[in-house]
Amino acid sequence: MKNARIALLASVAAAVVACAGTGALADITLIGTASIPGNATDKSGLTNVFGDKIPHNRLGSFGSSIDYTGKGDLYIAPNDRGPNNGETPFRPRFQTFKIGIEPGGTPAVNVELVSTTLLSNESGEALTGLASAFSDKDQRLGARFDAEGVRISANGTLFMSDEYGPWVDEFSMDGKRLRRLAVPSRFFVDHPDADAEVEIISNAKGRVANRGFEGLAISPDKTKLWAIVQSPLIQDGGVSADHKHAGVNNRILEIVIATGATREFVYHMESHKHGVSELLAINDHEFLVLERDGAASKMRALYRIDITNATDVSKIDSLPFDKLPETITPVSKKLWLDFTEEKFGLKALPGGMPEKLEGLTFGPTLADGRRTLVVTIDNDLFADKPNWFWVFAVDAKDLAASVPMAEVAVPEHQ
Fold it and tell me: For residue 413, how many other CB atoms are within 10 A of its CB?
């Protein structure tokens, strides 16, 4: 790490899959993969060690989300709340990476850590991953924060979705929170608790514990945000009578950045055993959704969705557990990419198919006109689990309606 260069494990695969998007079938090719060792350290300068022997400067858990800056090869990747399910005072932060992509090169994907930026609130006070750091009087005043999504604004600031609240916050590039966007009250529990089981039992509405805004998208023109919950809200069948995960109708919240106006749409999952990990805008009405289960290698897929004809359910307080009434039309949905396809060879990586595929962003356009798609994996800060980066190339015809992200002002780092 002395030269900010991270040891890489790179592989190149030639794999093509037919994808059912809108219009003609297109090709998706795996350009290559790269990994960072699970015991690598970041540039936070933090020196304390948690009781479970995890150094506070361990470089991991940033795979929950990633966004391309549009400037050269720079990417932003926030860390989630840290180890032990919110039981440690992990300091939320984001990492800035350089990801070099060279199809056919050796390596084809090269990753370098540039900097680490710690997060604070509007007053400059440190945010924390502690699940107990909430305010009993006003949830807006709590210090706990669990970043699960990130998108860069037109002004070069960062929008991050939080799993705890759930919130959508805006941060400066130096890590200071600028504002908290208004989210409809139905997404919040009335009685937050550090114990997930207690919280679920104590509430009749709001996000299920640990399953708030897991994915975040921004329109190519940077005027709208969309946040999606990992699984249905409690009142939408998010938990069963025995408090297990249930239901398949996830809400997508649309926010107009300038006015705060909102709409809500329904994303219907393939199974109640699944969850949504990420949302990425293709244009102002089509998105890629990363849906997966929690098993070792059974279901990891991207679906292409369209909200054009979907019903706005913002006036509907409760959704059915499974089948929707004829009055509610969910977003349209087509399988776009299956990560478990043998032709990609990802199940043969060291350690097998990772569980937590969670980050998704379009990267730069290649010389031949293809778009790059970067996928990241959250390793939960385990020293024996690498942090993976997967880079795909997508035929531009399949994303003809998408708009490459414009360059934004990103500070230079030492």
Answer: 13
Locus of tokens 């795909």? 392
Interior angle at CA 244, CA 240 and CA 245, nearest 5: 85
pLDDT in tens, 263-309: 999 999 999 999 999 999 999 999 999 999 876 658 899 999 999 99
Q: Give CA–CA dist 302/19, Å, rounded.
A: 10
pTM of the model: 0.90
Residue 80 to residue 66: CA distance in whole angstroms = 12
Structure tokens, 129: 């991953």
The DSSP-derived string for 161-180 is EETTTTEEEEE-TTSBEEEE
CA dist 333 and 265 (Å) reads 13
Classified as helix, coil or strand, 280 is strand
- DSSP letter assigned to residue 3: T
**pLDDT recorded at residue 403:** 52
Task: Compute the distance between CA of residue 52 and CA of residue 31 in angstroms, rounded to an integer.
Answer: 37
- Residue 129 and residue 79: Cα distance in Å, rounded? 10
- What are the two backbone dihedrals, phi and then psi, of residue 136, each rounded to the nearest 5 degrees? -70, -30
Q: What whole-number distance in Å separates Cα of residue 320 and Cα of residue 276?
A: 18
- C-alpha atoms less than 13 angstroms from C-alpha of 341 in its C-beta half-sphere: 19
- The residue written with tokens 């470089």 in the block is 59
Q: How far apart are CA 30 and CA 53, in angstroms?
A: 36
> Tokens in use for 214?
């897991």
Residue 70 has pLDDT above 50, yes or no: yes
For residues 347 and 337, give the distance between their C-alpha atoms in angstroms, rounded to a whole number: 15
